[in-house]
């Protein structure tokens, strides 16, 4: 099934050139099924690239999906035009009375800062708190995952001696339903200077469902299964790590070549299939859990939180 996009949304043309089906609003209104309502809080500097990466993945669902993009108002966005943001992005004040089936919180290049030093931290906290009652399921990516683990569970960041940068093998620890169709071992891009305090993870109501070869947690889910935390970047395109490497070099940042990325100077994408499958499974999971009437989400989430407190 298609994604519904506004007729002049920039990514629409690119996705259609890749045979990814997107329909405009007027055509979508004549379909009887209720689409899933998805909200994407895009914290990445190059927002258009991130839009394309995520839309590629969620387009593989057989469900029709309405996507809203959310921006923070407490941060000056320097890498995306104001016109683009004004036309296609919403402020939190415009969505906080709404309910959504799913929310994606992206990463952001601020991981070497303390959370409270990030200029939009208080706004992000408000959004994360709102999501607990107004969204059926939330996926947090990279720094977004670290932020979610810190806010919801008090799990602190741990600085690495050097950037974790490349494609790394992951081992499934629990065959959770988000891994339907996965191999027991899979690959996922990583690009970060920090990890999480593993000892604190063991003390919280969190399931570690995937680890890397060094036994570092890379995919986690809250015990009530509402929040999913991806430490890596399933959404990355084939050339994204190369672009990051070249960008670092231009800025004078010392970064090693991405690990397990080049083979005789050529990049072979070894994570694409699992990335599509993960998001397909997540959207299907949301579809099974979410009520038909969006306004019923808050009552269901209140009941979920009450069960979690009692347990």
Automatic annotation (TrEMBL):
Q: Which organism is it from?
A: Enterococcus dongliensis
Q: Which UniProt keywords apply?
A: Acyltransferase, Amino-acid biosynthesis, Cytoplasm, Methionine biosynthesis, Transferase
Annotated protein name in UniProt:
Homoserine O-acetyltransferase
Superkingdom, taxonomy of origin = Bacteria
> Which reactions are catalysed by this chain?
L-homoserine + acetyl-CoA = O-acetyl-L-homoserine + CoA
Member of which family? Belongs to the MetA family.
InterPro entries according to UniProt: Class_I_gatase-like, HST_MetA, MetA_family
Site for Important for acyl-CoA specificity, residues: 111
Location of the protein in the cell: Cytoplasm
């Amino acid at each position: 099934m298609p994604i519904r996009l506004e007729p002049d949304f920039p990514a629409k043309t690119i996705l259609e050139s890749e045979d990814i089906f997107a329909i405009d609003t007027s055509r979508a209104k004549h379909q009887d099924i209720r689409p899933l309502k998805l909200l994407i809080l895009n914290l990445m500097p190059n927002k258009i690239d991130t839009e394309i990466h995520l839309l590629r993945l969620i387009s593989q669902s057989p469900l029709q999906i309405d996507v809203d993009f959310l921006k923070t108002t407490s941060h000056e966005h320097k890498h995306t035009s104001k016109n683009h943001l004004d036309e296609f992005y919403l402020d939190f004040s415009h969505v906080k009375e709404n309910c959504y089936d799913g929310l994606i919180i992206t990463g952001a290049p601020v991981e070497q800062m303390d959370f409270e030093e990030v200029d939009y931290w208080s706004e992000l906290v408000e959004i994360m708190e709102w999501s607990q009652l107004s969204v059926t399921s939330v996926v947090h990516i990279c720094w977004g995952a670290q932020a979610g683990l810190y806010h919801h569970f008090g799990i602190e960041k741990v600085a690495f001696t050097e950037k974790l940068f490349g494609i790394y093998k992951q081992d499934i620890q629990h065959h959770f339903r988000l891994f339907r169709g996965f191999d027991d071992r899979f690959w996922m891009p990583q690009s970060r200077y920090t990890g999480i305090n593993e000892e604190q993870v063991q003390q919280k109501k969190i399931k570690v469902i995937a680890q890397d070869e060094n036994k570092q947690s890379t995919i986690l889910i809250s015990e009530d299964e509402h929040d999913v935390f991806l430490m890596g970047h399933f959404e990355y395109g084939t050339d994204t790590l190369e672009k990051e490497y070249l960008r670092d070099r231009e800025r004078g940042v010392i970064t090693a070549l991405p690990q397990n990325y080049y083979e005789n100077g050529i990049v072979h994408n070894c994570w694409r299939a699992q990335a599509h499958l993960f998001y397909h499974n997540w959207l299907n999971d949301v579809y099974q859990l979410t009520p038909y009437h969006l306004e019923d989400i808050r009552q269901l989430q209140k009941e979920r939180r009450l069960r979690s407190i009692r347990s």
